[in-house]
Design goal:
Blueprint lengths: L1 E6 L9 H15 L3 E8 L8 H5 L4 E6 L2 H10 L7 H5 L3 H13 L4 E5 L15 E6 L2 H9 L4 H24 L2 E4 L2 H6 L5 H7 E3 L22 E5 L5 H21 L4 E5 L5 H4 L7 E5 L5 H6 L2 E4 L9 H8 L4 E3 L16 E2 L3 H13 L1 H18 L2 H18 L8 H5 L2
Parallel strand pairs: 1-2, 1-4, 2-3, 4-5, 5-6, 6-7, 8-9, 8-11, 9-10, 11-12, 12-13
């Protein structure tokens, strides 16, 4: 098949949440033998260098710079309309022209859209052969933010979640199929009638690279134990989580385990995150080329998010690395895990600190969690069967949407 792949961020390198999923989706379509034409934004200009890597596997690649200052201005301009601000952020004439040109020059069997904000670019005539991976119901994120900020921003976020939720309903009803990562996300779209839900909405969870993330053969240092939190540290939910753990949880741990250390690993740490290094035992690394050495050194991986959507890759990667994980219930709400079996769940500072101390001091408990964590992701989050579902869905959409008056021969041949 000939496919158009549209993404809100360049799907390479697979080194952060959305890029991990979009890269594996792109790669699976290429490996299946499909001819993939890629159009995507790059909000980090350094990412433009990766066009060469993507050109090796895609039939064509166009990466459009997305300058954040201008993107924010476009988002604000949408205040006077009824459109979500998120759509304005990603609305660029150049991308629209590229999509229109690609559609006019190619006879696409199907279109794959990564992120709800990019559905605005799909030509009307291609809607019936388009699959949109919304990943998460993003409107709920803005709804969460509205409850955790000042009054002015709360009003803005409240406006955005309502507008974006309406748009998400429009996506599900307009396009052939939409995808989310968990049943929890799907349940948020509760105004869908049962027929639309069954016919057009699919759940395909995230996977993890089980070969890349492997359990260490060396046990962690428990005499000076290190607790590790990994994530993009310019992202609101991660910033809030890092502050919560460093300020409210870690002091409780240090009071009883004075040699404990807390490492915050991740690119672009915000000023609020950098300031956490002033606390005893807290280290903020900033960007690292490879998170695996930090995972190997960790006695415990912690995921202290109090705002979370979908499936957290940081949880899957830690579990794949065979690490004991302590997380909030929000962080693992999209996973079929059991507290005390696959990981430990803690939603108060006292419970979080108690769970951490228990794992640090009980070697048999830690080893049991490490073993069961790895077994869990092997059984539930291997990319191969998950991507098989995605590829088959796109192929089915392309095959059934034949051109008027003649069969879709490419789709039928699977070429």
């Amino acid at each position: 098949m000939k496919l158009l792949f549209i993404a809100h961020r360049i799907p390479y390198p697979p080194n952060k949440g959305d890029k991990i999923r979009s890269f594996h989706e792109l790669q699976s379509l290429v490996e299946r033998g499909h001819e993939v034409h890629l159009l995507a934004f790059a909000d980090d200009l350094n990412d433009l260098n990766y066009q060469v890597d993507l050109a090796r596997i895609c039939a064509s690649v166009e990466i459009v710079p997305l300058r954040r200052a201008w993107a924010r201005a476009r988002a604000v301009a949408n205040l006077v309309s009824a459109r979500p601000l998120s759509l304005g952020y990603f609305a660029l004439r150049k991308m629209r022209r590229l999509v229109e040109r690609a559609a006019s020059e190619n006879d696409f069997d199907a279109v794959f859209v990564y992120s709800s904000t990019m559905a605005q670019y799909v030509p009307r005539e291609l809607a019936s052969r388009t699959v949109v991976d919304m990943v998460d119901v993003d409107s709920e994120k803005w709804r969460d933010y509205a409850g955790r900020t000042n009054r002015l921003m709360a009003r803005l976020y409240d406006l955005e979640w309502k507008r974006l939720r309406r748009y998400e309903y429009e996506i599900v009803t307009r396009f052939a199929n939409s995808i989310v990562t968990t049943r929890r996300e799907a349940a948020l779209l509760d105004q869908l009638d049962e027929f639309t839900r069954r016919a057009r909405l699919r759940v395909i969870t995230n996977g993890v690279d089980l070969d890349y993330f492997q359990p260490s053969t060396q046990p962690p240092d428990t005499t000076s134990p290190r607790l590790v939190f990994i994530g993009a540290m310019d992202y609101f939910a991660n910033i809030e989580g890092a502050r919560y753990f460093a300020e409210e949880v870690f002091p409780l741990i240090r009071a009883r385990e004075s040699r404990a250390k807390f490492s915050i690993i991740g690119a672009n740490p915000a000023a609020e995150v950098k300031k956490l290094a002033r606390y005893p035992g807290v280290n903020v690394t900033g960007f690292v080329d490879d998170v695996r050495p930090h995972l190997r050194e960790a006695a415990v991986c912690i995921v202290p998010l109090r705002i979370a959507r979908g499936v957290q890759n940081k949880v899957l990667e830690a579990m794949a690395a065979g690490k004991a994980v302590i997380a909030t219930s929000e962080s693992v709400a999209g996973l079929r895990v059991a507290d005390g079996e696959h990981l430990m769940i803690a939603d108060t500072p006292e419970r979080f600190a108690g769970a951490a101390l228990e794992v640090l001091r009980d070697e048999s408990l830690r080893e049991s969690l490490e073993m069961r964590a790895r077994y869990y992701v092997e059984a539930e989050h291997d990319w191969k069967p998950l991507l098989q579902k995605l590829v088959e869905l796109i192929e089915a959409v392309g095959a059934r949407e034949n051109k008027p008056g003649r069969p879709n021969t490419r789709a039928a041949a699977g070429s």
